[in-house]
Amino acid sequence: GGYGGGGSAGAGGGGGFGMAGSAMDHPMVQQHVKEAAMQQAQHGFSVARESAVVAVSELRKYVQEGPAGVSILCFVGGIVTTVIGALGLLNIMSVVTSPFQYVLNAYLTMFGIITFLLEADMEALRGMRVLGRLAPFVERYQGDVFNRAKILTELRGRGFYYVFVGSLAITQCFFCLLFLVGVWNLLMGSLCLLMSFGINPAEHMHVQRGQDHGAPLYDQPHGGCV
Prior knowledge:
By secondary structure, the chain is mainly alpha-helical. It has helices at 2-25, 27-64, 67-89, 94-97, 99-119, 122-126, 135-148, 155-170, 177-196.
């Protein structure tokens, strides 16, 4: 008797699945599913587009400031490049499995530290409690770079430097952390190169969402990108 009841329950369950399958085969149900999927896709696209507009608006504000604003963006990129490269160095086993990748991470870490030190705003750094202790070291390092590698003190030289770093990272994979680091460095290099020719890209970056008043364009930067 018990087995018979189980069989009946199983049959009932099978009937339930059959009814669900039949319902999904109904044209009206399929139409509702398609409409719901389209609405979700449109909502996701709208959110992504709105986020992109906000990102471009914020980027434009920094670019409008000229070399000083771009220097801040380069500074952020240097920190991110250092972190991504250092995370790659933590995988010690990759020395054997992927030695070239490990060497690349070492280079990216070094380039990230160089960028961080070059673009650091000394006045802001001295005002920090913890990092302020590094101000004398950073200032001494900047002085050495300015004396020995003067090409990195100019916008054009800085631009070629970031393009080089970005080309190293972007060719390693597609749409991964290294790829994003490469894209950012290439973008910073392009901005520096354009500004070295007297072109401010902010004038060609149109923002559709609201009005963007931005910051004034400075003739002299207060950051590292000069």
